[in-house]
């Protein structure tokens, strides 16, 4: 049994009796500051309330801050809904591909593969505390008492909370209510922005290393290898900087240079083809040259999307693309040879939905074996992103995913790296936030030797700490902008509907409150169902 599942079972076995006891014996549980809150338990304290009182005295400042908070919340709400709807639309293509694992659903530093123990604990603590402090300070600035603060627990710690006095809060007008609900979102966003700005300042002093043999800045570097791929079996480790290539049996290596295109690959003065075997020369942290085992090189199919043109063409994972023939309308068919993943992606960016496509794949049975070229059934490309043709395969260079020290540093320090239009903002930002799933935080420890950093380890540790402060704060801000209860966004959405109904001429406050509550509850239910569908699709 998977360790994560076992831990979840054990935690549930421990949690359920405690929850039942709190439910059945509320008076006894209250003595230990435990209160049932739906399927969770609130552990109540009064920590931080005095600080909230002091900071809440600056009412004019917090009034302006409330307006800014509402603007930030609206922006994050729109971005969150865009990401959620995009994820829902992509669900059919994920069926059968497998998820990243249930352990990713647990926000437990050290147990969740994305969250490192020390950095994760510190950053998570800061994110939760500043979020609830924002709610508390804005409550006091609007003369609303804070009854308690504490921890929300449900099988695992789910977050901190700040509990404004419900009776006072319900009697407030819409503006202060929305200021209070939006405060946590905006404070997390501001902490994230400050953390990112400080990280950028530190990273500005980091430069690609220059070794005696090579200038590393634009060498193709390996930062991910698909398991059981030819690259994996060749013995090349992640963090290798590739410096040369030769056909199997040759005596000397030819220098390589990175090609930064739709996909980062490399080229040399020798022709690289999936019809041959090659050996790669690479540098490791010891600054010594190493040699790979022989491997077939080319655009290796990593995955085939279900119900895609590629699936209909009977393409399969771990086969090499040899060529793709495109027929557009009445034009003559044109065959394009594919030597690497960059060739494939560049070609796909030049296709259109409706193009007829014939794919050939190449297989070599052994190092000195014969080449088998297989022609697959003709298929029609469907519509991909930005209107390009869509085949439905993901490819790598023999299972190796390349970057360069320069590109990696730019991607690590710029959430919008490569953005060419404002419409790409949400996609680029989401891709940046998904970095920890691929081991980026923002630069894996295994490849920090690619760089010269003033302060060495101290600089890298500070960069990582700032990154996790940014990541967890912005993630908490975005998730709380979700228009669903009990997230802050659910209450903000209800307030927004109330405001809209008033503008539409419904002056009766009681009727307006009933209508906005009913609409918000319905939207909340739909949103939560969408959210959990996406979550399950990605983790299971």
Describe the protein:
The structure is a single chain. With 540 residues, this protein is an alpha+beta fold. Among the domains are: 269 residues, no CATH class; 98 residues, PDZ domain (Pdz3 Domain, Roll), CATH 2.30.42.10. Helix content is 44%, strand content 21%. The protein has 16 helices and 23 strands. The strands form seven sheets. Strands 7, 8, 9, 10, 11 and 12 form a six-stranded antiparallel beta sheet that branches. A hairpin with a 1-residue loop joins strand 3 and strand 4. Helix 8 runs antiparallel to helix 14 and helix 8 packs across helix 15. It is elongated. The mean pLDDT is 86.
Question: Which key terms come to mind for this protein?
Answer:
540 residues, alpha+beta, five-stranded antiparallel sheet, 44% helix, elongated
């Amino acid at each position: 049994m998977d360790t994560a599942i076992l831990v979840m079972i054990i935690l549930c076995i421990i949690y359920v009796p405690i929850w039942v006891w709190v439910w059945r014996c509320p008076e006894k549980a209250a003595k230990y500051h435990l209160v049932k809150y739906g399927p969770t338990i609130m552990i109540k304290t009064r920590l931080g309330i005095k600080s909230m009182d002091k900071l809440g005295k600056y009412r004019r400042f917090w009034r302006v801050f409330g307006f800014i908070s509402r603007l930030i919340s609206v922006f994050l709400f729109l971005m969150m809904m865009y990401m959620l709807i995009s994820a829902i639309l992509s669900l059919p293509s994920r069926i059968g591909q497998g998820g990243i694992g249930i352990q990713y659903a647990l926000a437990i530093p050290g147990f969740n593969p994305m969250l490192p123990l020390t950095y994760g604990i510190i950053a998570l603590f800061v994110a939760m505390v500043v979020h609830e402090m924002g709610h508390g300070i804005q409550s006091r600035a609007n003369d609303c008492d804070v009854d308690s603060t504490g921890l929300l627990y449900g099988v695992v710690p789910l977050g901190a909370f700040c509990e404004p006095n419900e009776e006072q809060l319900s009697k407030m007008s819409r503006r202060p209510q929305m200021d209070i609900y939006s405060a946590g979102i905006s404070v997390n966003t501001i902490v994230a922005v400050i953390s990112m700005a400080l990280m950028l300042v530190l990273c500005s002093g980091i430069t690609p290393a220059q070794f005696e043999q090579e200038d590393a800045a634009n060498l193709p570097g390996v930062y991910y290898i698909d398991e059981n791929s030819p690259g994996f079996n060749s013995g090349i480790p992640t963090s290798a900087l590739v410096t040369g290539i030769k056909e199997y049996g040759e005596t000397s290596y030819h220098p390589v240079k990175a090609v930064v295109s739709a996909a980062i690959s490399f080229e040399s003065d020798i022709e690289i083809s999936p019809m041959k075997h090659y050996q790669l020369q690479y540098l490791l942290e010891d600054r010594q040259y190493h040699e790979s085992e022989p491997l077939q090189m080319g655009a290796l199919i990593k995955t085939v999307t279900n119900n895609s043109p590629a699936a209909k063409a009977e393409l399969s994972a771990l086969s090499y693309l040899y060529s793709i023939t495109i027929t557009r309308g009445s034009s003559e068919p044109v065959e394009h040879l594919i030597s690497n993943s960059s060739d494939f992606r560049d070609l796909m960016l030049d296709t259109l939905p409706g193009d007829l496509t014939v794919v050939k794949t190449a297989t070599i049975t052994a190092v000195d074996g014969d080449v088998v070229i297989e022609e697959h059934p003709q298929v029609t490309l469907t519509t991909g992103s930005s209107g390009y043709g869509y085949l439905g395969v993901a490819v790598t260079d023999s299972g190796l995913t390349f970057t360069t020290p320069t590109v990696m540093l730019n991607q690590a320090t710029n959430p919008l790296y490569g953005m060419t239009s404002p419409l790409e903002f949400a996609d680029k930002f989401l891709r940046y936030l998904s970095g920890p799933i691929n081991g980026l935080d923002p630069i894996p420890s295994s490849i920090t030797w690619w760089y010269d950093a003033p302060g060495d380890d101290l600089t890298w540790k500070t960069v990582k700490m700032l990154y996790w402060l940014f990541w967890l704060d912005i993630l908490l801000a975005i998730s709380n902008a979700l228009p669903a209860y009990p997230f802050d966004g659910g209450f903000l959405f209800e307030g927004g509907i109330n405001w809209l109904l008033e503008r539409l001429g419904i002056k009766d406050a009681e009727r307006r409150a009933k209508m906005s509550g009913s609409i918000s509850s319905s939207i909340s239910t739909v949103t939560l169902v969408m959210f959990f569908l996406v979550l399950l699709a990605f983790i299971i």
